[in-house]
Amino acid sequence: MNTQSFHVLVILAAIATVYGDCPNGFLQHDESCYKFFHSTRATWAEAMMYCQLFKSHLAVIESEREQNFVEGLLRREYHQGLPDGCWIDGTDALVEGEWIWTTNGNPITSESYQKWFPGEPNSKGTGEDCMDLLHHENYNWNDESCEAMNNFLCEASATTGNMIVG
Ligand SMILES: [Ca+2]
Ligand SMILES: [Ca+2]
Ligand SMILES: [Ca+2]
After folding, report:
1. 128-139: per-residue pLDDT in tens?
2. Domains of the chain by start residue, with CATH
3. Apex CA 115: angle with CA 113 and CA 117, to 5°?
């Protein structure tokens, strides 16, 4: 093998390392792949099903590092005309006030990572049981009516490309 084709191989291998383990159209960060569906509006339950069609789940944000990445991604892709909210995986629909990540069942408490916007969750109106990130609240967490028509963010594992149903 000559030096030039070796270089090409090294570059291809590097590209495969960066992009190889994510589904088409998903962006890799750490061990996960993300896709912001900004052309589709859906209720929270519909959004969950859309993510499943793409072998993913609504985004589960478990660290400051992941939150910062998600904020950056949504801020870059936001443009006029998009809804204010973007669904992620949290809900307190089972027991009011007890937030969990749907995908893995883990409780969201002061022991775990959380990034509620000041004053949220506020269970406005007739109640709000689904979690979204609001553009006007800097993509910190908000409880929202599950029937709101939002965009949504799906996440898949970068190593298997499959969702793990918890
Ligand atoms: Ca995650
Ligand atoms: Ca609630
Ligand atoms: Ca709220």
Report:
1. 999 999 999 999
2. 3-157 (3.10.100.10)
3. 160
